[in-house]
């Protein structure tokens, strides 16, 4: 019986330490050292939250850059990948359909960057490769009348390099890119 009381006391101690003290301390430290990130890296425009740097948003307009495909339809409460094996016929058919849709939307596209037709693991990757963003430039130029070199310059301006100089790949946050595009052209 004595060992049961010891187990209960140890359990209560660990619940207080791990379930209360540790989360409060880490949240407090995060709020002090990284307040923007701790609050979700929110993007505001005119005092209104319009998105997060960390989550992709669906943009349907042909005048805007489109992010990677999302199985969850960009619904943050339904994060998921497709769970379809890349060797399956379902995956091949789905990929062919996405390529056809992409070519209809971007008729001048010859080389298709993989990130324009494949999903990230979560379905919410907010970034595209610079090649994926630049592949959409002719469509956006045609729709908006903005010169392709101006749009390519905008993509270059928003291209982030590898983290710490060697981790990951260069990337462009589509939401931030579209916000700047909207500011510049007043669509």
Please give a structural write-up:
The protein is mainly α. The protein folds into two domains: 1-39, no CATH class; 40-185, no CATH class. It has helices at residues 2-33, 35-38, 89-105, 130-134, 137-144, 148-157, 174-185; strands spanning 42-45, 48-52, 127-128, 159-160, 171-173. A hairpin with a 2-residue loop joins strand 1 and strand 2. The mean pLDDT is 89. This is Potassium-transporting ATPase KdpC subunit. The chain crosses the membrane at residues 12-34. One of its GO terms (molecular function) is P-type potassium transmembrane transporter activity. It is found in: Cell membrane.
Count the helices. How many?
7
Alpha carbon gap, first and last residue = 73 Å
Q: Strand content of the residues, in percent?
A: 5-15%
**Secondary structure category:** mainly alpha
Tell the overall outline: elongated
Strand order in space, largest sheet: 3-5-4
**Major beta sheet summary:** 3 strands, antiparallel
How many domains? The number is 2
Order of helix and strand elements from N to C terminus = HHEEHEHHHEEH
| Beta strands, count | 5
Q: Provide the low-confidence segments as ranges.
A: none
Any idea what the radius of gyration is?
22 Å
Helix content: 40-55%
Oligomeric form: single chain
Mean pLDDT: 89
């Amino acid at each position: 019986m004595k060992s049961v009381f010891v187990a209960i006391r140890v359990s209560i101690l660990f619940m207080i330490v791990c379930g209360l003290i540790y989360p409060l301390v880490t949240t407090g430290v995060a709020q002090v050292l990284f307040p923007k990130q701790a609050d979700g890296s929110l993007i505001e425009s005119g005092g209104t939250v319009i998105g997060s740097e960390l989550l992709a948003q669906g943009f349907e307009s042909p005048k805007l850059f489109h992010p990677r495909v999302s199985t969850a339809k960009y619904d943050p409460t339904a994060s998921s990948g497709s769970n379809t094996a890349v060797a399956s016929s379902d995956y091949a058919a789905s990929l062919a359909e996405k390529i056809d849709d992409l070519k209809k939307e971007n008729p001048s596209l010859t080389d298709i960057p993989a990130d324009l037709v494949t999903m990230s693991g979560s379905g919410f990757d907010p970034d595209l490769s610079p090649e994926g963003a630049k592949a959409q430039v002719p469509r956006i130029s045609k729709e908006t009348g903005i010169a392709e070199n101006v749009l390519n310059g905008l993509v270059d301006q928003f291209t982030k390099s590898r983290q710490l100089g060697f981790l990951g790949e260069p990337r462009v946050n589509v939401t931030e890119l579209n916000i700047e595009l909207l500011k510049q052209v007043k669509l």
